């Protein structure tokens, strides 16, 4: 599962400087600076509307930004949506994005969903793609579900297929946008356990989440966004137990009880 990029611990793989992004008349991200190192798991938390998902979408080129600079996996994203298509493709291969709503192809079975990227993007031979997909489905506990279609699976199973599909591109990291929000507690545990295993294998993980238990146990750092700016950035025990600002205290009191 390891890539060459994963062999350089401490290397900066995400670099954001002075990022500004708006939607309509609303300024969603305001002058944000953030650096992520290879192999880090970073939990991005904060109130709704604070800019968390927008930040993640900017890193994947799904949302354009107006000012600042972003570099992901050695590739620079350009403001105003001017990033060349080949650079966007490289970024999305290196840092795959997983969404809350799975986004599986409903007309393809599970095996075909996982094979799609290696076949269509990486030019793998069908037998190579099949072997890779079968191995990844076993990896996420769904080896017997290859011939099933997405609508016959539970939400947790669909989310694990989505993770397998992303891993089929052999990424250096994952961008996870609230991927457990729609799952029941048991299914959340399955997905979060898989992410913890992937962290142990050296993948870089940026995860927008409300799962404070996962953030405390598995994140190397927690970044708290509010109003489009970072108001906390540090180890879990510092951010969750000793936040620096009154706004952080108020937010964490509401979510931690």
Topology:
Elements: E1 12-23, E2 26-37, E3 41-45, H1 52-59, E4 67-72, E5 75-77, H2 85-94, E6 95-98, H3 110-120, H4 126-139, H5 155-167, E7 173-177, H6 185-200, E8 204-208, H7 212-218, E9 221-226, E10 229-234, H8 236-241, H9 246-256
Parallel strand pairs: 3-8, 3-9, 6-7, 7-8
Antiparallel strand pairs: 1-2, 1-4, 4-5, 9-10
Helix pairs in contact: 3-4, 3-5, 4-5, 5-6
Give your account of this protein's structure.
This protein has helices at residues 52-59, 85-94, 110-120, 126-139, 155-167, 185-200, 212-218, 236-241, 246-256; strands at residues 12-23, 26-37, 41-45, 67-72, 75-77, 95-98, 173-177, 204-208, 221-226, 229-234. With 257 residues, the protein is α/β, with parallel strands linked by helices. The chain has one domain (4-256): 3-Layer(aba) Sandwich (Rossmann fold), CATH 3.40.50. The protein is globular. The relative contact order is 0.17.
Gyration radius (Cα, Å) is: 18 Å
**Low-confidence sequence ranges:** none
Largest sheet: 6 strands, mixed
- Strand portion: 15-25%
Name of the top-level CATH class = Alpha Beta
Gap between N and C termini: 39 Å
Note the main attributes of this structure.
10 strands, alpha/beta, Rossmann fold, six-stranded mixed sheet, single chain, 257 residues, globular, four-stranded antiparallel sheet, 9 helices
């Amino acid at each position: 599962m390891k890539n060459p990029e994963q062999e350089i611990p401490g290397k900066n793989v995400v670099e954001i400087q002075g990022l500004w992004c708006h939607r309509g008349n609303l300024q969603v991200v305001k002058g944000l600076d953030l650096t992520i190192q290879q192999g880090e798991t970073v939990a991005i938390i904060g109130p709704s509307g604070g800019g968390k998902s927008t930040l993640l979408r900017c890193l994947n080129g799904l949302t354009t930004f107006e000012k600042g600079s972003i570099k992901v996996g050695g590739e620079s994203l350009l403001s105003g949506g001017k990033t060349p298509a080949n650079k966007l493709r490289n970024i999305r291969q290196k840092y795959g994005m997983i969404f809350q709503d799975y986004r599986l192809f409903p007309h393809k079975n599970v095996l075909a969903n996982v094979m799609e990227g290696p076949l269509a993007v990486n030019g793998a031979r069908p037998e190579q793609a099949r072997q890779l997909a079968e191995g990844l489905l076993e990896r996420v506990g769904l080896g017997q579900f290859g011939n099933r279609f997405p609508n016959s699976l539970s939400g947790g199973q669909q989310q694990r297929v989505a993770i397998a599909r992303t891993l089929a591109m052999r990424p250096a990291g994952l961008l996870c946008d609230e991927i457990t929000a729609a799952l029941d507690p048991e299914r959340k545990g399955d997905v979060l356990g898989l992410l913890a295993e992937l962290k142990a294998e050296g993948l870089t993980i940026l995860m927008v989440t409300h799962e404070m238990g996962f953030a405390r146990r598995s994140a190397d750092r927690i970044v708290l966004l509010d109003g489009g700016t970072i108001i906390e950035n540090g180890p879990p025990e510092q951010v969750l137990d000793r936040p620096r600002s009154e706004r952080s205290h108020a937010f964490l009191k509401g979510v931690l009880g």
